[in-house]
Amino acid sequence: MKIHLIKTPEYELEEYLKVCEFLQSFPGPMEFTSTEYEFDKKDFYFLRYELYPHHPFKYPANDKALPYDPNRGTPLSFKELFSLCDFYRNEEKISSTDFVILLTNRKNGMNWFSAFDQKNNVFVHTAEWEFYTNDVSPKYPVAYEVVANTIQTLMNLDVTTIPNEFIHQPFKACMNDFCQNKQEIIIKLSNARICPGCIDRIRSQNVSDDMLAQVQDIFKGIQSEFDFKIEEKPLSPSKVVVHANGDIELLDYGINLNLPSSWKALYIFFLKHPEGMLFSELEKNKDELKNLYKICRPRVKDAMLNSTIMNLVDADGASFRSAKSRLNTKIQDLLKDPRASFYIIDGIQYNKFSINAASINKLVDIRC
Predict the structure, then answer these.
(1) Which domain of life is it from (predicted)?
(2) Strands 345-346 and 354-355
(3) 14-51 residue pLDDT tens
(4) Separation between Cα atoms, residue 325 and residue 237, nearest integer Å
(5) Cβ-contact 131, 138 below 8 angstroms
(6) CATH number of the domain enclosing 45
(7) Which residue range is the domain that position 94 belongs to?
């Protein structure tokens, strides 16, 4: 069974890929697929924040027509969120038996963590998990909600009448606890449990034991992140040397960052600007980026040089987000946590992007 994971534009590609890669690491009948598909804000007016508070909400009846409230962070209705799933389903010709699951930072009118529509569409709210899970990476609760909603759909839960036999309130430390008090979500996540009554219901709906075993493995992987851990002594960052030809060496670790030339240019640019840079400022610095790219790829043709850099600083940000995300993933793979945290390009949309190690000038030696 295929589960297609998609996202809204404001959810960082890097965070999205972390969720996808975690779920894909558990083999079984559920096949999680990722995509770099981007919804065009011109086609979906409600994805544009600037419309608020004059947004013409499209709440279905069960959303109770909640009024606009700026404290909800420009929420979307269930209808709008599921319309993105339906659009992607139609655009990509997704089978009706496959799942389409939307990951989004945008709140919803009911202020739920997630929801499903009985048509194999799901949305999961990806933001603000730090309020409930403290120092645990948000990829784990988001992955939990992806799996839970898939199984809840397959077991034909009744979400029109809450609580009921299979949607528990008060909680039972079960996947199907309603958690009207959102702070209770930590109990679900840290127990990663499905109660015996719900297991019987799942099996009665012909969910295979292989799929349940996969769910169990994923839940155990999530649960382990909430276990008691003794912190290891933090590692010191390495000196970063950028050689005359653009090669990047982490001197103390004996590691070369073997990156494509455009990524190298972007990385060196942020090393040269330890104060950080807004994405909107990159376009004004395109000449510096071009010079760095020519250092990293001296035989590049002018047409390729111009198109690569102009694409990187394009206003929609898609190329920059993709390059940053894949560059950071490469660094994570090479260095592993916690060392990688010194060297990734950190930051989110509308805030400055920077490299942590670059803020310590004595650690960076740029020779080009």
Answers:
(1) Bacteria
(2) antiparallel
(3) 999 999 999 999 999 999 999 989 998 888 888 887 76
(4) 21
(5) no
(6) 3.40.390.10
(7) 2-226
